[in-house]
Amino acid sequence: MKEKTHWSITLVRILLIVLSLYLWTFIFSNAVSDGEVSSKQSQTVTETVQEVVGAINPDSPIATATGESFDLLHACIRNIAHFLQYFALGACVFGSYLSFARKGSKRYGYIAPCLLFLTAATDEYLQSLTVGRAAELADVATDCTGAVCGICLALMAFGLIKWTVSAVKRRKLNEGRENGSALAKAR
């Protein structure tokens, strides 16, 4: 007989799948935006980072970066954005896999990392076909590193959840045994 899935597990599955689809859409829509649009978007993000850092520490080299320093900051922020997008995608995609994986089953665990690598390669390929953009192997490496870190986060989160659930079950079992022995002594 098939065990009924708890509503919270179904909710987590749906949330992870929807987030994965959203992130794929976001990543691929950015890949096909032309060089001018992409540069404006990342420049706006860089300027926002400068404003935030400037509010905290107005004398910071980040807040005061101009010229070559701004260009270097801009490049760093673009790399961080690549990493974070794939970090989130890796956590969501592998979390989706883990939410469906049967206890003790390692089958098909390789599909999510392969899919993430394929996403990074396709993302860069699409950029090479877009006006004003170029594919960079370094971006694929950054994307894959982010995805691997996201996978690690998903593994740690699901491991912590499993450990917590089993600890609660053990505690309830021990309480039940203690209550049962207390009842037996009272008789």
Descriptive report:
With 187 residues, the protein is mainly alpha-helical. 80% of the residues lie in helices and 0% in strands. The protein contains five helices and no strands. Helix 4 runs antiparallel to helix 5 (137-186). The chain is elongated and about 85 Å long. The two termini are 38 Å apart.
Q: Could you provide a short overview of the structure?
A:
The chain contains 5 helices and no strands. 80% of the residues lie in helices and 0% in strands.
Poorly predicted segments = none
| Distance between the first and last residues' Cα | 38 Å
Based on helices, strands and strand pairing, what is the structural class?
mainly alpha
In round numbers, the mean pLDDT is 90
Number of strands: 0
Radius of gyration: 23 Å
Number of helices: 5
Question: What is the H/E string?
Answer: HHHHH
Largest sheet: none
Kindly estimate the percentage of residues that lie in beta strands according to DSSP.
under 5%
- Envelope shape: elongated
What's the helical proportion of residues? over 70%
Based on the model shown, name its key terms:
5 helices
Topology, element by element:
Layout: H1 7-31, H2 35-56, H3 67-100, H4 111-128, H5 137-186
Helix pairs in contact: 1-3, 1-4, 2-3, 3-4, 3-5, 4-5
